[in-house]
Give the backbone structure.
Amino acid sequence: MADVALAPRRAKTEIREATAWDQLRHNKTWLGFWFMLPAMAFLIFFLAYPLGLGIWLSFTDTRIGRVGHFVGTENYEWLWDDAIFWLSVFNTLLYTSVASAVKFAVGLYLALLLNERMPFKALLRAAVLIPFIVPTVLSALAFWWIFDSQFSIISWSLKQLGLITQNINFLGDPTWARICVIFANIWRGVPFVAITLLAGLQTVQPSLYEAATLDGATRWQMFRYITYPLLTPIIAVVMTFSVLFTFTDFQLIWAMTRGGPVNATHLMATLSYQRAIIAGQLGEGAAISSAMIPFLLAAIMVSWFGLQRRKWQQGENND
Amino acid sequence: MSSVQIRDVRKSFGSFEVLHGVTIPIEDGEFVVLVGPSGCGKSTLLRMLAGLENITSGTISIGDRVVNNVQPKERDIAMVFQNYALYPHMTVADNMGFSLKLRGAKSEEISAGVKRAAEILALTPLLERYPRQLSGGQRQRVAMGRAIVRDPQVFLFDEPLSNLDAKLRVAMRTEIKELHQRLRTTTVYVTHDQIEAMTMADKIVVMHDGIVEQMGSPLELYDRPENQFVAGFIGSPAMNFLKGKVKVNGVAYFEGPNGVKLPLKSAPANSDGSPAVYGVRPEHFTIADDGAEAEIVVVEPTGSETQVFAKLGGEQVVAVFRERHQFNPGDKVRLKPDPTLVHLFDDASGKRLNG
């Protein structure tokens, strides 16, 4: 009796419940959507929209203070024949490849060093982070002084030692200027690489090294066969970020050289800023920025394959 | 294979001494188990043997060679770690062949060595897998395989079974013992589990607070513990201890807590009235009319035997019976220790008093 009485009622309520609003409230998929909404909105407004706007601007002849018209790929055609643009591409690639390679080597070396037992370890680890926590512009200004044509402490020291007779024109000579900005970028980027790799090193079980010691491994063999392979997933992450940050660097260059001398240190980011904001050619600047996207995508693709779970990471963990 | 001599070995971390002069002779081909509660220094001693810790003083020799200053890889030992320490990025075959590879062996030589060890341990179908794809017991076997491949003078095991579940532990215990019987390689095995020690060892070394309490064959330690610590540590359920006095009043007997009278075969000389500890193993109680009265608290049947917890003179004791009795909590029974099998210890030093 009870079943007979209840069954039609339940069916009836189900019909009533099936409104769109109720589904939005109760459906698990929609619930997931509601939870993601704030993060999604944030990403759309602050990442996707500016990116889309930038790409759109690159197809217009917008200037500061004047609404632009769609001009197709005209901006890109201009850039194709622009020697300064190609110089900035070359500079960016040089800057990124040299700085990233050195940052990786020095960062890995520091990480291995800081992973050793030594006095004042905590203090040293904290000290390594200093370049990272100093505001970029502040450190750039400090480097500006260090490399100043008249008051450079390096020139002064070398003169005192009698090694040179004239000041080195660090930021005035194209080759020196490139070396200087790359050096400053390395100085600033090494802590990130070092600390992250150090965190990776600390996840390697000490007993693996003990087992390797008993297996007869030398220090180099331990690094080559144990540490390095176990560290590769973290190296992939760190180096992706390092490459992306270096490729899009702006602050350091702008504070130290503004792209000079004779555009020798102009990166794509600084050139884009100069054309878009200083010269007011928003469309052209946007095109330069958009031209960075293929390079960045390529870097991400490399890391995507680097980040694939290696075969030894697969399978169940029974620990 | 070779013998191992540990002579008056001490170990200090800073000013804190953890091993206070340990001497252990290990014969060629012997299976020696170092057993003791955590913090007794057994693992430290094993790591010193392996060369992973420095020796503060004393000597360790493997064969005829003092190895105090010999590099771990030159010692010709192999170790199985508690967490196995398998290289996660190498296949089982690579894990096992790693030491040969480092030694510069040819690839045919490596694969032959790996194959031989894999056959001994039935690992052949797993050779291309990674450690993550193995079960706990399989990982354990790979760790042993890595040791076997090297064909060392001495095997060292550091609590190798403590990460396994109870059933697998029993199976691996047998497997390790069988492996030793087959290879006859000198083995030093560290554990905190006295059952493991009893079942596997040729010789047990009981350690406590950085000293050797007693060493001997499993049954020697069980039947004739030199002191109260060993008596309490070896055997499960543990030996019952009752404090009281030795009385010699025509016949020798023991006056336990609250005047309970317990039988003694004989009293040590001049011991009348001296305080002592009376030790009796749970299985050495019988029900007898002339036994001491005890009240049953809990009865735990396990099928093969029944453990009975009872109050004897106000102290809780445990007795084990293989025959089936009808016991109920609250029942009064008369428990009689077998006087030929009881142990008597000095109250202060814990040293054995009876012969």
Observations:
- The CA atoms of residues 28 and 305 of chain A lie 33 Å apart.
- The radius of gyration of chain A is 28 Å.
- The mean pLDDT of chain A is 85.
